[in-house]
Amino acid sequence: DYEKIAVDKNPASQFFGTIYMSVNAMKLNAEEYHGTGLVIIKPSGEIIEKMTANIGLLQPPQSLLVGKNGILYGGRDNGYNKQVYRSLDGGETFTASEIPNGVSGGWCVPRMSSISDRSWWIYNGPELAQDLTTGRLYTTWVKFKECKSDPSLEFGSYSYDNDVFISYSDDEGVTWSNPIRVNDDFTGGDQ
Q1: Contact in structure between 131 and 138 (CB atoms under 8 Å)
Q2: Which long-range contacts does 142-148 make (Cβ < 8 Å, 24+ apart)?
Q3: pTM of the entire predicted model
Q4: Is 34 in a helix, a strand, or coil?
Q5: Which of 52, 62, 100, 118 could anchor a disulfide with 112, C-beta 3.0 to 4.6 Å?
Q6: 103-122 confidence digits (pLDDT tens)
């Protein structure tokens, strides 16, 4: 349920034509571990399957992006913070950088409506994009202000006041700017 695909489309990149796909569940063969992974499809057709734990990823990326220099980026909410992973070697290994003030606050989902006891899981990012002219990377995500307890609801609590934030990096994802809240409402509504 987190499958994402990214393709290196830059002819100047050493990984040009490589396709990357993150997967939430995979099994390499009958004898090997079943878990989360990254599938790399080379232009030659060679398929390489990597378990995320073996390449520096805690979980599979929820977003994937191949940057203009062939760097592979993966965004992930680890339940307690937002991270952007980057690979300089075509998905063989990854290093993480944290987004400042990208704290998730744990697992909490918004309620469907004020008249329902149901909750609705939303994709809260981080999502990645790059300005190909300047090289600036962007990440955006949703963060709730409060997780309210309510035993009458489906999960016993719900997130309140979900807002959208954005941050950028000018050094290929090594460091990130302080986040800026994108939405301008102050009513406690969900975005």
Answers
A1: yes
A2: 142/191, 143/102, 143/103, 143/104, 143/105, 144/105, 144/108, 144/110, 145/188, 147/105, 147/106, 147/108
A3: 0.85
A4: strand
A5: 118
A6: 656 677 777 677 777 777 77
Mapped onto helix, strand or coil, the DSSP state of residue 53 is helix
Rounded Cα distance between 55 and 91, Å, is 8
CB 78 within 8 A of CB 107: no
Q: At residue 165, what is the residue type?
A: F
Q: Which residues pair with 31 in a beta bridge?
A: none
The answer to whether 72 and 81 have CB atoms below 8 angstroms apart is no
What sign does the dihedral 115-79-137-6 (CA atoms) show?
negative
pLDDT score of 123: 75
d(CA 127, CA 149): 28
CA distance 183 to 186: 9
Rounded to an integer, what distance in angstroms lies between the CA atom of residue 66 and that of residue 20? Answer: 9
Structure tokens at 54: 């073996």
How many angstroms separate the CA atoms of 65 and 68, rounded?
Answer: 9
Residue 56: closest CA among 89, 81, 21: 89
Q: Give the list of residues 6+ apart from residue 112 with CB closer than 8 angstroms, or none.
A: 118, 119, 120
Joined together, the tokens standing for residue 109 give 């989902």
Instruction: Give the whole-angstrom CA distance, residue 60 versus residue 12.
Output: 27
The amino acid sitting at 73 is Y
